[in-house]
Amino acid sequence: MLLTTGRLSKALQLTLALIKPDAVAHPLMMEGLHQSILDNNFVIVRCKDLLWGRQDCERFYAEHSERFFYRRLVEFMSSGPLRAYILGREDAVGHWRELMGPTKVFRARYTSPASLRARFGLTDTRNTAHGSDSAESAQREMAFFFPDFDAEEWMRSEEPAFRSGRARYDPRRRVHALCARS
Ligand code: ATP
Ligand code: MG
């Protein structure tokens, strides 16, 4: 399948997306989530499954350490496997957050019934997905999950080819990769 967002004039933006343990536990839900990413014209630049230790969660969510839900969040996020993606699209940060829907699942069901959290979320904590909330957070969070990924280098060397439509989805690796110029 060729990338349908081909030949855009605006540079692709990268964001970090996580699928949380409530969804990773259900293979059919994971299929649906992965398909939604593809259907919404994101390019999948990286994808990996991992387990998080409690300390990783504490570091990642340090900004929430004073909130009443912090302990619950740390317990939940270290309770089972996660999937991490680097996604690319025009305005990827905003588009991914829009696709996820509001943080609170019941609000999501009410205001954005087609969103991922409305479709798959269970509670305010077990809300299926995470997305970076700004371009700066995306840089930090991509480095957290993909320390070998050089976002600046990717923007320089691969983004123009992805933007001009020369990326093909590889279902075996579950990522997009550049194909040879025809
Ligand atoms: P995320 O950072 O996961 O993309 P978000 O930016 O929509 O979500 P944040 O305010 O950053 O929301 O909260 C981080 C996470 O903490 C939420 O996704 C959710 O799992 C949990 N959380 C937030 N608010 C609550 C709450 N009121 N009760 C329980 N858990 C909450
Ligand atoms: Mg957040």
Structural write-up:
By secondary structure, the chain is α+β, with helices and mostly antiparallel strands. Helices cover 42% and strands 19% of the residues. The protein has a single domain (13-161), classed as Alpha-Beta Plaits. The chain is built from ten helices and six strands. Strands 2-3-1-4 form a four-stranded antiparallel sheet. A hairpin with a 4-residue loop joins strand 5 (167-170) and strand 6. The longest helix has 13 residues, at 27-39. It starts with 12 loop residues before the first strand and ends with a strand. Bound molecules: adenosine-5'-triphosphate (ATP) and magnesium ion.
Q: Provide a count of the helices.
A: 10
Compute the average pLDDT.
Answer: 94
Radius of gyration: 16 Å
The overall strand count is 6
Shape: globular
Structural class: alpha+beta
